[in-house]
Amino acid sequence: MKGSLLYEGKAKRVYHVNDEPEQLVLSYKNDATAFNGKKKDEFEGKGRLNNLITSKVFEYLHQQQLPSHFIKSLNDTEQLVAKTTIIPLEVVVRNVAAGSITRRLGIEEKSVFEPPIVELFYKKDELDDPILNDYHALYLTDVTEAELQSIKDKALKVNDHLKDLFKQSGLKLVDFKLEFGRLADDSIVLADEISPDTCRLWDEETGEKMDKDVFRESLGDLISVYENILQRLEENTCAK
Ligand code: TMP
Ligand code: ASP
């Protein structure tokens, strides 16, 4: 059923689906990159963990009436999704200060954002994904003003639900990045992945970092941390 390779990114390969032009297969790789690919490594099992975690998260969001491109998980490392044209925006929602915002704006790590802060970045490796305002986003992409507003509203709704989901697993959702894509009918839907590669998650009790910062900051064994996240999500979703 999997067809030819359409695109290879830093974390995933994207394949056509034979006889299903409006579907794609996403195949999660074991590669980890940070700082726009300047730091690189490979971790056996990472592709499986991100595929399974993303699948759980999208399934949960579907149950909360928040649709995405996700159709189903196919096997350990692959999932079937609706074909979209990705809008070149990284939509970041921040509940607590960490990462680039602390450096960019001199905000102390762990400062709480209430209400949460939404930021837009231009998805363009050659430019190191610069931060954008709405005017830039409207100029650089094909989204309308109303669509941009709806993207930000959806990102905040996703935040509400993900905060709950992770809290039930003893994790604080510090921040995360979303991408959106356009379906064949022109509507815009949540796409890409939601995993510890794209979220910051801190243990509620110990404050321990349990996401890709473990790799970015060389804090320990990435795979055991991602295993732990999957296990917590499985315990939490099975108990219901
Ligand atoms: P930042 O603090 O580096 O701007 O990252 C904010 C959030 O976005 C964090 O949860 C990590 C995620 N992220 C990605 O998923 N991809 C990226 O390329 C970057 C820079 C951040
Ligand atoms: N995703 C980016 C990279 O692959 C940056 C990051 O996540 O820190 O290099």
What is the overall silhouette?
A: globular
**Order of helices and strands, N to C?**
EEEEEHEEEEHEEHHEEEHH
- Strand fraction equals 25-35%
Helix fraction bin: 25-40%
Terminal CA distance reads: 33 Å
Structural class of the helices, strands and pairings?
Answer: alpha+beta
Rounded to an integer, what's the Rg over CA atoms? 17 Å
User: Number of DSSP helices?
Assistant: 6
Mean pLDDT value:
97
Cofactors and ligands present?
thymidine-5'-phosphate, aspartic acid
Given as residue ranges, the uncertain stretches (5+ residues, pLDDT < 50) are: none
What's the β-strand tally? 14
Largest sheet: 7 strands, antiparallel
Give a quick precis of the structure:
31% of the residues lie in helices and 33% in strands. It contains 6 helices and 14 strands.
Structure, explained:
- With 240 residues, this protein is an alpha+beta fold.
- Helices cover 31% and strands 33% of the residues.
- The chain is built from six helices and 14 strands.
- The chain has helices at 46-63, 100-105, 134-140, 145-167, 213-216, 222-238, and strands at residues 2-8, 12-17, 23-28, 31-34, 39-42, 70-73, 78-82, 85-86, 89-96, 112-122, 131-132, 171-182, 188-191, 199-203.
- The strands form three sheets. Strands 8, 9, 10, 11, 12, 13 and 14 form a seven-stranded antiparallel beta sheet that branches. Strands 1-2-3-7-6 form a five-stranded antiparallel beta sheet. A two-stranded antiparallel ribbon has the order 4-5.
- Helix 1 (46-63) runs parallel beside helix 6.
- It is globular.
- The mean pLDDT is 97.
- Thymidine-5'-phosphate binds at residues 92, 99-101, 129, 175-177, 198-200.
